[in-house]
Structure to design on (212 residues):
């Protein structure tokens, strides 16, 4: 690629991201349906025709923002590490999910609340861009390590869903119904995750059996 072409590609990339950022602001202000592409064009000082050279429809733009949300969250989850074994990693993944919701609230709401899942059944692979796939892989590592066990009615997918639903529910509550609530959610998040993971672990199973 020649230097002029490279500069043009970078400029187009910056322009595209500026459009996405402005669209996210409009979504945060008015919801998914409360704005138009014409309004977005005015905000970024483009003509409607120029805007459509980047995104040919509102649907395409929302899909691009959803992809951005999933990629950013997957990047955060993929960077997680723990020195406390598979359960420690699952705890860090949960906390990273909550951090993403806190740091990128508008993107979190769009990508993980308002837009539907791109995966529509357990028969489908989560896909390379799926942040849920990171959690599922970590659950499978914990199962292989003997930290968590499955059952015919409670598979690796069910375990991953339990963890995902726990942190998602905490994130949604904190940023909606409990917005402004006076509580140390950082402490609550970690303790709640530890208790859920302990309940899922084989150690809890052995303890419960010993009490019978």
């Amino acid at each position: 690629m020649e230097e002029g072409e490279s500069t043009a590609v970078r400029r187009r990339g910056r322009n595209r991201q500026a459009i996405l950022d402005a669209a996210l602001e409009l979504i945060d202000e008015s919801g998914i349906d409360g704005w138009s592409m014409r309004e977005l064009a005015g905000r970024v000082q483009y003509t409607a025709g120029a805007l459509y050279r980047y995104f040919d429809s509102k649907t395409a733009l929302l899909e691009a923002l959803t992809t951005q949300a999933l990629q950013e969250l997957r990047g955060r989850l993929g960077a997680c590490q723990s020195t406390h074994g598979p359960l420690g990693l699952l705890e860090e993944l949960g906390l990273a999910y909550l951090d993403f919701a806190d740091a990128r609230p508008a993107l979190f709401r769009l990508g993980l609340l308002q837009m539907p899942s791109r995966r529509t059944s357990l028969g489908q692979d989560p896909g390379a861009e799926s942040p849920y796939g990171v959690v599922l892989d970590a659950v499978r590592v914990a199962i292989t390590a003997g930290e968590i066990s499955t059952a015919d009615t409670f598979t690796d997918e069910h375990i991953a869903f339990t963890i995902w639903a726990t942190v998602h529910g905490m994130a949604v509550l904190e940023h909606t119904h409990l917005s402004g609530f006076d509580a140390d959610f950082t402490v609550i998040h970690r303790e709640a995750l530890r208790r859920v993971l302990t309940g899922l672990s084989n150690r809890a199973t052995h303890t419960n059996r010993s009490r019978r």
Q: What stands out?
A: The two ends are 70 Å apart (CA to CA). The chain is about 70% helix and 0% strand. The chain has a mean pLDDT of 92.
